Automatic annotation (TrEMBL):
Organism: Brassica napus (Rape)
COP9 signalosome complex subunit 3 N-terminal helical repeats domain span: 56-221
Protein name: (rape) hypothetical protein
SUPFAM superfamilies in UniProt: Winged helix' DNA-binding domain
Keyword Protein biosynthesis: no
Amino acid sequence: MLFPRKKNPFNLTKPPPFISFARIYKFPCLSYNVKDPMMKITYSPKPLRLKEKACDVVLLIARFINACDAVQIRLASEKCNLEDSKTKLWSSENPLRGVAPLLAAVHKVQVSTKRLTALHPDCLQLCLLAKCSKAGFSVLSDDDILEVDQPRDFYLHCYYGGMICIGLKRFQKALELLYNVVTAPMHVVNAIALEAYKKYILVTLIHSGQFTISLPKCASTTAKSSFKTWCTPYIDVGMRYNDGKISELEAVVKYWTLSLQDIANMVQLANAKEAEMIQDGQIHALINQKDGMVRFLEDPEQYKTSEMIEIMDSVIQRTIGVSKNLIAMDESLSCDPLYLGKVGRERQRYDFGDDFDTVPQKFSM
């Protein structure tokens, strides 16, 4: 930028004066200074604080999410990426501000509860950072996921969802999500699966009290061998726990025996009473207030109440729904030309003879 050429606009024998355009044009973030007699002007923006900038961006994104059209967003869901915004939330050290906007974005982008979007793992991760486990649990659906854009999104969704369920002491749900990561198809093992398997071992010991090293047949052979190599300490803990040999378990595990008052002091609670975390349906125990000892009891549930019957009925209905989805997927796969072509090539390779039928009888003409 140059000034209009005038004859001796300044006294060049003296240093050029400071010219502030910020006062004239009311730009609080810009200031200009004359650097040389040739009237060349350079500007240096006053940098905003990183936290303030991140908060402003979060506010703009929240306004856009609330005002945008859900139908248009779903048409370009692959471009609805909030990765940069999530990074700004981390830098602001206040991830709680982004939980509500991300929850709203997930509900707008998601077409059905059976479809997983790229926003799901980001939302769950942000809920973990903000320590909003209940908000993250609302994103997890009881319906089976049938549509996934990227395999990595499925891994992260189940991994973060399992961690949220652990925080809420919903160990059965956590096992289901971590199990999905461990048994997912993979040609090369990834870090997400390794961390999920470590937590899967610990949650299994907490929930059922026993651990089985053998994985189901649906798990990939690569995952099985890699888990044994990279998760050896956790596997040793599980095996020692199964054997019931306390001396061997103490050799691989270091633990403390703490009183309720010690726990309250460590987590900065007001008193030992706030450290009593026995909830209905989770742990059945009694605490002796005199000496602080805990006595564990058997489950008092007799499975005869109307509430338990409703729970069992919902589980049965879900099982029926899973069966219908499997039948529909089997029929769709049986009519897939790529699948039929591959089966035909395998037939020629192994020569099964006339007993091998590439098309099910249901679809035979």
